[in-house]
Each structure stands twice: as structure tokens, then as C-alpha cells.
Design a protein that fits this description.
The protein is an alpha/beta fold. It has 14 helices and 13 strands. The radius of gyration is 24 Å and the shape is elongated.
Length: about 300
Amino acid sequence: MEIDQLETFLAVISYGGFHRAAGALHVSQPAVSARIRSLEDSLGATLFERVRSRLLLSPAGKALRPHAEQLLRTVAAARQAVHELQPSAGGALRIAGSLSICTYFLPDVMKDYQAKNPKVMVSLRSGNSMEVLKMVLEAEADIGIARSVNHPEVETMTLRDDPLILVSHPAHPAARKKWVSLEEIETMPLVFYDRGSSDWTLSQGLFRREGILPNVVLEVEGIEAAKRMVERKLGLSFLPQIAVSHELQQGKLAAIHITDAEPLHRNLDVIHPRRRPLTRDAQAFLLLLQAAAAAMPMTKKQRKHRPTPKAD
């Protein structure tokens, strides 16, 4: 039983077949087949079965899987421990973050991190949550920060709740009432952003479930544009709390509570590959992320339902 055989075995499971596993491992399909065959020969058991053209784990494969995952985690940890003993001028940290998080949450964290770790070279790339996940899965980033991301190949740690909240200009009639119904909102002008994004889908779904057609007067490209439109009294908008916390504190925007709808929950999540342990540089960055998330202002409801940080 060899390391590359176990890696190939888990890749076939993750990617659902020999061809896709070969592409992910950058080897030929015959090489994948040969590794699996050698592993089966060493164990004296068949690891995969084909059922109606689907590739499924055999009982032996199911038994092997958790042990293979644990062995690879141990190997990765051993390599990392040896690597960190090697002298170097400084480390490197690759971060991927969703655009809203890079804009509204990470700048202060980055400032603190670089002040404490001046020799670490940091690269930060942004994208939507699915792009962040892809960068982490393809080893283009050591750590990812996104909203509500889960995948079987990554560890997910929730830092805090980051709901979408309905905001208006303080002079809007809804701001004076503070509590409104969906039926009332139906008549109000709304500003939506990033058509097709998870935020767009989540906020649109609020109306769709009740059979209500929202009065969308503007669709813009991003959160910042939507926020500026609201500040200029062009409509209300559902925006991430982290994007409007300062404006709410300063009284530039007002939060509107909906009486007959569940809150639009989103999480602020940190992700990293299950089979690749966090480096010391990434661990130090994670501690600052946790401290920054804990220091962010919370509503009473958020404090009551604050998520417990843990790996999935």
C-alpha cells in the first residue's frame, strides 16, 4: 500500500470516476487504473463496483476510505512539520476571499496580520463564493473566506452570522416604522445587485415563496453600487450586514425589520482542504479572523444564535 495509491483511491471517490480523477491528478487514465489495481492486489479485495454504469464503493472500499483519509492527513502533517523546520527568510500565505469580504472585512485583518508578520508574503485573490471554493480545492489558495460554503473536500469553520438585511435611507417612511410586512414592501422600490448570485437568489426567493412580485426599480453590478443607490433615496435593498455596519452605526442607513418573513441567514465561513493542514502562517491568520469576527457588532438576535466555531 503506497501513498500515491491511496491518493488515487480517494481522488476516484471525490471525482466520481477514473477519467476525472486522472485529470485532477495530472496522470493518464491507465496510470489511475494501474494504481487502483495494485492497491486492490495488496489488500486482496475489490474496492469499486459498477452498478448500472455508476461507479460505487464496495464494502471493502467503504471500510478503507476513513483510514485512507486519516493516513493522508497524517502524511500531510508530517511533511508540514518538516517543512516548517527549514530556515527561510519568511513565509508565504495565499488567501482567497469573496469580494464583499475582501472589501468590508479583510482590510483591518490584513493590516494587523502584516504588522505582526512583516516577513510573510501575502497574496489575496477575490471572487464569488464558488470561485473561492475552486481556488482552495485546486491548491491556488491556502485558506478561503466566503459566505455559507460547504463541500466534502474542505473543512468549514463558521466565524459568525452575516445575514442579508433590508436597509433604506433614514428618511424613508419604512425607516420611521422600522417594522413592515412583505405586502408593504411589495409596493416599495427595491434595488437588487449581482443577478444570479446567491444573494440575489436568496432575496428574490423571499418574495417568490409568498407569490409576491418585488418592485425592482434598479439592478446594479455589486453591493457598493446598491448601497450608494439606497443612500441617494432610490430604493431599499437587501445587503450583507458586514457591508452596511458602519453606515448603520453612523445613521446613514436604517435597518428595516420584516414582520412576516424569516431572516435571510448567511454565514461568514473559513475553508481549507481537509487533506492539507494549515501552515503556521495560515493558523496565525485564522486567529486574527476569529478575533475580528468576534469584535464585529451584533444584533440581539445574532448574539442569541451565535454559531459555535467548529469544523464540519
